[in-house]
Design a protein that fits this description.
Layout (H helix, E strand, L loop, with lengths): L6 H8 L6 E4 L2 E4 L9 H18 L4 E5 L3 E5 L2 E3 L3 E5 L8 E2 L2 E7 L5 H13 L6 E5 L6 E7 L2 E7 L5 E4 L4 E4 H4 L13
Parallel strand pairs: 4-7, 8-9
Antiparallel strand pairs: 1-2, 3-6, 4-5, 6-8, 9-10, 10-11, 12-13
InterPro entries: Nuclease_put_TT1808, Restrct_endonuc-II-like, Uma2
Organism: Methylorubrum rhodinum
Pfam family, one: Uma2
Amino acid sequence: MADRMTPEAFFAWQNTQAEPYELVDGHPRPHAKAFTAVSRWHDHVTVNLLCALHGPMRGTGCRLTTGNVALRTGPPTLRRPDVTVENAPMIPDSYENRAPRLVAEVISPCTTTIDCFRKLAEYRRHPSLAYILLVETRFPGTVLYRREGEGWADESFEALDAVIELPAIGARLTLADVYADMTFEPGRAAQ
């Protein structure tokens, strides 16, 4: 097996690649979404999340980033969450978030296992994260993991009128905003 890359070496290497990669245990791996095209639903939910969080973040010192900016989940591992809320001074030429408060992964059928298990476990270990949000695309549904002391509590939201309170970042999300302009097959849309 080849030597492990440092995050710094990875970023230098990534800048020469056409597709996004993650660094997993010191080894570059194609980003999970590079294996298949991101669906319109995935993209739409990601944009809706960004739009819903943008207003509350203005003037707070928090900023939003997309999967273009990495998050270090361990010394040899860098992930690319779909949406991150960071609360730290901006370092202009940096390629990673250093003080994330929230990460959101928009679940696609091809990424469910890695997003809901491996990445979730990695994110839970990050010391500055207050929230991890997993968002479905096949039906309206989210799971919010909220740091409570030394552990995590989870809460599911399925009704479109549900409100997700995020006081650690001064925001709230409604599922109606997350799933704005989307329709689901009968029986899948919670009322």
